[in-house]
Design a protein that fits this description.
The protein is of the alpha+beta class and 294 residues long. The protein contains six helices and twelve strands. It has a seven-stranded mixed sheet with strand order 4-12-9-5-8-7-6, with helices on both faces. A three-stranded antiparallel sheet has the order 3-11-10. It has a two-stranded antiparallel ribbon with strand order 1-2. The termini are far apart.
């Protein structure tokens, strides 16, 4: 492979596309990128402003004094880009000669690097969401072993978000594969293939239930220790307004190794996340038992 054919801008864009196509937690509809802005270096910050709500009060005709309007206040929070992950691989010339198109081999390696970056970032986002959910939206841990119990939990999560006035449009829930298995056994669950969605291929969507877009992920944090024969994972429900994300591939480089007959490709992925509306998330630690009838 001739290093002179390498175009950093094109590779960087391709890597970001691969990340976005494979994200579960970082995809649109689960998180938002309202404050992403420009990220150029590890430690960069994105400023987030909050405006206080106006006070609502009774009005009496010809009596209420309107001469002193309320002064709304603003507060600020900071989204810190404090996560940095890299890839740094080498393709030996002897290995490259084993394939007809050695450039395609490097491209495949870069794609695998992007998938690895995806998993690390998605795991970070899942932990951020679980650890930042409003305490009143954390349901008591549950042991479930039937499709009906799994479906009833989704109803409770829906009620929890309803009580916090979270918009019903755009809600999601992310579950572990064991929980997915139970849901698929409930005829009230609408499989994604039934409404012709291509999202399952890209972003983990498996269907819809009680107003939630249901997604499955292997990157969900484990819950409290489970008993023998159980798996313990958080079920994470919410609205994309809750969590904001910012990321960028800031550096992609290709060069000849000084010590080997080989090409080297390396890149740097910077990102950060913050739960700005913790009341728009609802979670439950679920211990799932899979039996022969599931």
């Amino acid at each position: 492979m001739a290093v002179t054919s390498f175009i950093p801008e094109v590779w960087a864009a391709a890597l970001l596309t691969t990340l976005e196509e494979h994200h579960v937690f970082a995809q649109d509809g689960v998180t938002n990128r309202d404050y992403e802005g420009e990220i150029s270096a590890y430690g960069d910050t994105v400023q987030i402003g909050y405006l206080s709500d106006p006070t609502i009060a009774p009005y009496t005709r010809n009596s209420t004094d309107l001469s002193s309007p309320e002064v709304l206040t603003t507060t600020h929070d900071t989204l810190v880009i404090d996560q940095a992950q890299k890839f740094n691989f080498m393709l030996d010339d002897l290995d490259a000669r084993q394939v007809r198109d050695d450039g395609a081999l490097v491209d495949k390696a870069a794609q695998r690097a992007a998938i690895g970056l995806r998993d690390v970032m998605d795991t970070y986002l899942a932990y951020t969401m679980v650890n930042s959910t409003d305490a009143s939206n954390v349901l008591e841990p549950l042991d479930i072993d039937s499709p009906d119990e799994a479906f009833q939990l989704l109803r409770r999560l829906r009620m929890t978000l309803n009580k916090r006035n979270v918009p019903s449009d755009g809600r999601f829930v992310v579950v572990a594969p064991e929980f997915e298995l139970l849901l698929l056994g409930d005829n009230r669950f609408l499989d994604a293939s039934a409404y012709g969605s291509n999202a399952p291929i890209m972003n983990g969507e498996i269907g819809r239930a009680v107003g939630f877009r249901v997604l499955v992920s292997n990157n969900i944090p484990a819950g409290y220790p489970a008993s023998a024969g159980e798996t313990s994972n958080w079920v994470i429900a919410g609205h994309p307004m809750a969590t904001t994300v910012a990321e960028q591939i800031t550096s992609v480089e290709a060069f000849r190794s000084q010590k080997h007959f080989a090409d080297v490709v390396r890149g740097l992925h910077l990102y950060g996340a913050k739960v700005v509306r913790p009341e728009a998330l609802a979670i439950c630690d679920v211990d799932v038992t899979i039996n022969s009838s599931s």
